[in-house]
## 1
Amino acid sequence: MRLDGKNAIITGAAQGMGSTITETMASEGADLVLVARSPGPIEELAEKIRATGRRALAIAADTTDEEQVIAMVAKAKEFFDGRIDILVNAMGATGPIETPVWEIGQQDFSDLLRKNVIGVFLPMKHVIPAMIDKHYGKIVTIGGGSGLRGYRYRAGYSASKWSVRGLTRSAAIDCGEHNINVNAIMPGIVETPRMHKLCQEKANTKGTTFDEEYAEYLAEMPIKRVTTPQHIADAVVFLASDASENISGQEMPIDGGWTA
C-alpha cells in the first residue's frame, strides 16, 4: 500500500471527487481526518473508512474561516499524535455559469475567490508548520484545467484556479528546504453531480439540452472520454506517495487532453 502508515487531512472529503479520493487513500493505507462544512456526510464516510480497519476522524469546519481552520488542525494533530504527513485540498466551488465577465457580480466574484483560494491557503498555512517539525510533507490541491487556459463565461472560476496555480508554485519554493512537496492536479470536466448540474444550467441558459452540452464537452477532448473521480484519486495517491518525492511546484492536468 503506497500510503501505509501515513496520516492525511482531506478537505471537501464527502462530495464529488472528495469521497473517491478519501476511499482510495484509505485503501492505500492512510489514516484520515475528513473535513467538510456539514458534519453528516463526512461522519458517514468516516464510519465507512473505519469499517475497513483504517482510523478516521470527521471534523466540520469552514476552510475559509481561520479560527475554524486553526481548531481543525489542532484536532488533527491530537488525533495523529502530532504528525500530519499529507494535506489534500479538495474543497471548492463553481460560481456563476454562462456569465460574461461584465455581468459577474462583485460579491459572486469575491465569494468564489474566498472559497477556492482562501479555502486552500488557510489549511496550507496552518498544516505546514506541523510538516516542518517532522521535515516531511505532501500537499496536493485540486485545481482546475481552467487554471491553465481561459474559460469562456467562467472568468471568476478561471481566476480562482489560476490563483491556486500561483499559490502552489510559490508554496513549493517556500517549503522545499523542509522536504515538503506541494503540487496541484488540474482536472477538466469530471463525471460528478457538479458536472451534471453544470451541463443542465448551461442548457437552460442557452436553450439547448443536457445531452448537447455533455457532447460539446466531450468533443473538446482529444481522448473522447470524460475524466472520472477515480482518475483524480489515483493521481492524488501518486502525488501523496513517496513515488513522487522529486516532483514539486507542478500542475498535473487530467482532462483527456482538453488543455493540450
Note: The CA atoms of residues 140 and 236 lie 7 Å apart.
## 2
Amino acid sequence: MELTEKNIPSVAEQLDILKGYFPQFSTEQIEQYTALYNLYADWNAKINVISRKDIDNLYLHHVLHSLGIIKMLHFQDGSDVMDFGTGGGFPGIPLAIFFPNVHFHLIDSIGKKIKVGQAVAEAIGLKNVSFSHCRGEEEKGLFDFIVSRAVMPLADLVKIVQKNIKKEQHNALPNGLICLKGGELEHEILPFRKRAMTINLSDYFKESYFETKKVVYVSL
C-alpha cells in the first residue's frame, strides 16, 4: 500500500492492518491497542511526543514499527526488557501489550515524555511496565535485553547499556541490544559484525514506510 499524503489509511484501517499482521491478539490486547490513538492524540496536543504531522499514522509508523522487534525475537515469559529513550512509550508500550508476562522498564531523560508514557500505561491498565526519568548512564538495573528506537548511533548506545545486561540467559538469542533503525547501517554495524544480526522489516510488512526500516540485534 503506497502511503501518500492523499492516501493515509484511516485509524480504523490501520488497526485492521495491525490485526491482520498479528491475528493472535486477545480481546484485551485489541482493546488496549485501540485505546492508544485517542490517548496519544489527546496528550500530543499538550506535550509533543509524536510529530503532530504523524499522529494520524500512529498505528503504522509507531505501533506496528515497535512490534517489528518481535520479528527478531519473541521474548520468553519472565524476561526483563529496558526501553532506552522511550519518548512517549515506543517501542515499550506496544511491546508490553503484546508480551503481558514480560516486564518492561521505560526510561527517558525528558520528564514530560515519561509522564505521557505513565499516563497512557495507566489508562489502558498495563501492569507489566515501570518508568524512570533518567539518563541511560544513570540506570543501574539489569535486563535480558535493551530495546531502542533510533535514539543514537549503535556504538554510543552499546557503550552506555552494556553495564545493564544480565549474565544469565533464557531467550532464543543471547542477551543484548535490539534496535529499530532506518537507512544504510553497514558502517554502524561494522564494529559488531561478528555478534550482530539485521533483518529488513520490508520482508514482513508490505507498507512503503517499512522499505528502509530494519531491526538490528547485537549480543552483549
Note: Residues 11-219 form a domain with the Rossmann fold fold (CATH 3.40.50.150).
## 3
Amino acid sequence: MKQLSLLLAIIIGLPSFALAGDDLKSKAAKYFDKGEEERALETYKKVLEDNNDDVEVLWQSAMLYTRVGDRLDDESQKQEYFEIASELIERAKHIDDENADVYFTQAVILGRKADHASTEDALKKAEEIRKYSSKALEVDSEHEGALHVLGLWHKRMANLSFAERSIVNTLFGGVPEDASNDKAKEYLSNAARLDTDMILYQLDLAKFHSEYGNPDEAKQLLEKIQNLDPRFKDDPYHKDEAEELLTKL
C-alpha cells in the first residue's frame, strides 16, 4: 500500500508543462462523456499533476482507473489500478462528503474489487456496496447509477446460494431482511427509466425479467438495445450479449 500511495503522490505531485488546467480538464471531460476512457484517463492524469482538490476530477479519474483497470489482463496491475481509484475517491470524499457521484463511484470500485475477490471477501464488500450506493441516493434520490447498483445488490442478496447464505449468516447473522427481487426490479427499472439510452441499464433489467419470469418484457428491452448507439467502451459487448440473449428467448 505504501508503494501505491507513493505512485499516487507522484501522479498528483509533479508540475504540469502541458495545456492550462482548465483546458485539460475540459478535454478530459469530453473524452469521459464520449466513452474514450483510455484517452480520458491519460488526460486526467495530467490534470491531477496540478489539481488534486477538484472533486469532479477526482471521482471521474477514480471511475476511469476502475473501468480501465478492470480490462487489464495482468491481475497485479488490475489491483494496482483499483487501489489508486480507492485513494482518489477517498480524497474526493474528504473534500466533499455530500456528493452523490463520489459515493456512487466508491460503490462501483468496491463492486469491481468484489468481482475479483473470494466469495467471502465479495460478500463482505457487498454490505459496503449497499452502504455507499444508499448514501448516494440520500444525496440524490434519482441518481441512476446508484439506483442500478442498488438494484444489482438486491438481486444478488435475494438469490444467494446455500453456501453463500451460510457465509452471510456467519459474517452478518443472516441475509438482510429487506433484500428482495421486488426491490431489485424497482431499482433496476428506475435506473433504466431515468437513462433510457444507457445500454447496461437496459440489459441488466432485461436479464432480470428473463431470469424471473417476464420474457416478454425482456424481449422488448433487448430489441430496444439493438437500436441504441454505444456510448461507452464496453457497450458493443453489451449489445452483443443482448443479441445473444434475445436469440435464446
Note: The domain at 1-97 is CATH 1.25.40.880 (Serine Threonine Protein Phosphatase 5, Tetratricopeptide repeat).
## 4
Amino acid sequence: MTGTRAIYSQLVRELFERLPHAGDLGPGAGTAVHGEAMALDRGAWVRFDARIEDGRVVDCSFRAWGCPHTLAAAALIASRLHGEGIGNEAAFDALRLARELGAPAEKLGRLLVVEDALSGMLARAHALQ
C-alpha cells in the first residue's frame, strides 16, 4: 500500500474506495439524459446518466472503466452535479480535475474522456431546453 499512497492523492483514494453514484440511474422524476465517451487506447470509458428537471440535475450516476483517477473523477463529477444547473460544465474541465485530484500529466488523456462524457450529457440536457 505504501507505493499506492505515493501514486494516488488522498482524494482519489477516498473516492475510489467508495465510488459514490456509481451504477445505474434510479427511477425518478425528470427527463433522463446521458453522455458517453471512450478512448480504449488510453484505457478509459465513461458514461454519465442524469435526470434533469427545470434546468437542474436532480439525480446523476456514472459507469466507468479505467484507472483509479478516471473512476475518481467520474465519481467526483456525479457527486457535485446534484442540484446544479446544466450551464455549469466549465467547473469540470479536465485540467481542473487533474489539479484537484493530484493526477499526473500522463493521466490527462483519461480525464479528457471524463470531460467529453460530461459534455455529451450536458449537450443533450441543453437540447431539451
Note: Residues 108-128 form the longest helix (21 residues).
